Amino acid sequence: MPLFDRFTALDVVGPYEVLKFLPEAEIVFVATRPGTVRDAPKSLALTADAAFTEVDSCDVLLVPGGPGARALLDDDELLGWIRRMDEGSTWTTSVCTGSLLLGAAGLLAGLSATTHWGAVEVLESFGAGYTAERVVFQGKIVTAAGVSSGIDMALALAARITDQTTAEAIQLAIEYDPQPPFDAGSPAKASQDAKDLLAKGIR
């Protein structure tokens, strides 16, 4: 899981909480250099275990999104590393605007993919066909929609790596039984007042 300044924490932590249960799982956080990486200034921090130069292969690549992702769409170091990891990976995945980084690395051209609803035009600029599905499998490429959908993606991936019963056991372990108090989780469902408030900068 690569980390970068201004990543979205749940993009990383949600899938982590699922995938860490897989048999013999070893999850490695990677960044430009080992050490602390923050999702926002003076905010939550995760620790990168290794530098990009120290990790040359993986079974599962999971690229998070966040406000910082857009600033890295021409970052040769990160994009080159993503391409190298994809060459040997069994699964290459993204959450939210992490799909923009997959697209910028040239991995989504001609494929159906999803991302945060606010990043559709950028995703399609890389040759991907946007779909509003929560999780999209295209061969070994798996994209998840905005933020919380990373948990859904990780569970679906866990079922493919192991089996459905194992994935269900993981879901039970984290008590993932969503019952949101409001039906406002997509632009098609949210009220105009909620959309207006979001546009003013709540996110």
Automatic annotation (TrEMBL):
Keywords: Lyase. Its EC number is 4.2.1.-. Signal peptide: none annotated. The keyword Lyase applies. Residues 3-158 form the DJ-1/PfpI domain. Residues 192-203 have a biased composition (Basic and acidic residues). It comes from the Bacteria. GO terms for molecular function: lyase activity. Pfam families: DJ-1_PfpI (PF01965). Residues 183-203 are annotated as: Disordered. This is DJ-1/PfpI family protein. It comes from Sphaerimonospora cavernae.
